[in-house]
Known about the structure:
By secondary structure, the chain is α/β, with parallel strands linked by helices. Helices cover 42% and strands 14% of the residues. It has helices at residues 15-20, 28-42, 57-67, 81-87, 114-123, 149-152, 158-162, 177-180, 196-208, 232-236, 243-248, 261-271, 287-302, 314-335, 350-355, 368-388, 395-402, 415-424, 428-434, 447-463, and strands spanning 71-74, 95-99, 129-133, 138-142, 154-156, 173-175, 184-189, 210-213, 216-219, 224-230, 251-254, 282-283, 339-340, 407-409, 468-471, 477-480. The strands form six sheets. It has a five-stranded parallel sheet with strand order 4-7-10-1-11. A three-stranded antiparallel sheet has the order 14-16-15, with helices on one face. Strand 15 (468-471) and strand 16 (477-480) form a beta hairpin. The longest helix has 22 residues, at 314-335. The relative contact order is 0.09.
Amino acid sequence: MPSPTVDPARRPQTLGALRAAGWTGRTVKEELRANLLERLAAGRPIMSGIVGYDETVLPAIENAIVAGQDLVLLGERGQAKTRLARLLVGLLDEAIPVVRGGELNDDPLAPISPSAVAIVTQHGDDTPIDWLPRDRRYSEKLATPDITIADLIGEVDPIRVAEGRYLSDELTLHYGLIPRSNRGIFAMNELPDLAERIQVGLLNILEERDVQIRGFTVRLPLDLFVVASANPEDYTSRGRIITPLKDRLGSQIRTHYPRTLDHELAIVHQEKQRFSGDGEPAIVVPGFIEELLAELTHLARRSPEISQRSGVSVRVTVANAEVLEAAALRRAVRLGEAVAAPRVSDLGAVVASTVGKIELESVGDDAPEERVVERLITKALFATFGRRLDLDDLDDVVLAFEDGLVVETGERVPSREYVRWMAEIPGLHAAVRSLGTFDVTDGAEEPAVVASAVEFILEGLHLSRRINKDRSGSGGIVYRR
Length: 481
């Protein structure tokens, strides 16, 4: 039993009371396994906030936990590897008993640190215990070249030596992060970046259980669940996981980017920052604009001009959504409108939020990133337009331009002008409505959203070579025959 009672106020506070309550310990892997199987039987979700992994990554993680294996999560940046590791904490028991004053989260029934052994020997059944909550049983370290064995495993503490202890006394040792993660989850991010000699030390303490610290050979029967992460590029280029360590880590699980636009957008809705202030215009993002942003990222992941070894993270879509909303808000404030909706004329803003998150395969132009992103934006808009609208339904709109219609759009044009065009241009009202821009309750149109739809339709017609566009002297876009 993980805990004799759910009520924290009634948990045993001494070793004797813990024994009397019938508490028996179990390893971290046994704990994770039992709690996972309990959730599966109850039909409860294993992890919250993870999108697109239900049929791929999560089943592999569940298999590894049930099999009692440590994990290596292998994937490009921005694939939720660290989040997956942190969410494993939710599968731990609510709290476990530890020896008060012990250094290594010692089990009161089987202490391993010299300090905890001494306390239990001195006090017996009166040994005081604390209850360690699950959120304090997770430790994480980012592998960097400057990490030392002392950081991970331990070192002689000169202050304890100065206090009068002999160097031969194990109580002079200050344990590192891994021993202090005993009875918990230890995560090492970007493991291949860890120097190979440090990986050897990691292998020793995780598998052989004895390690030398300044001449001490310390037997530490640590109880750990280890999760490592690695980027495939680093895995094969800058560094590597040494073979004996990789062999001990159990399951290697490949993560991936969202495979559908819906999954991409679900992550954006979950992760993007939200601000609100008194008197600010409300922000409404039409579905076709969101789809366009997701399409842009998916195209970037398939583009031969962009390095796929470093990846194109979902953070690109999140950042683009945030900056596009910011551009719409700025325009609405300047125009004095109560609602802000991103338009096609705002898409130039996402260049700045994209170029810093991609790497090109080669550099041949003065400013290649900007041009690559601009081409991808154009392709994304055309693809989204093709999914959302049928060109045959826009024949009346095209005929209006052939009869001499000229329309100038841009950030200086108020939304009410677009509403007027929608009413005057044959076929435009039906096209705007088909994009789902009207209020579903009363059918009323929001001018800011109508403006977004009209620009989307006009730009789609231009990319379909049905109408032309030019830059105006005022910085706007002129659509004509």
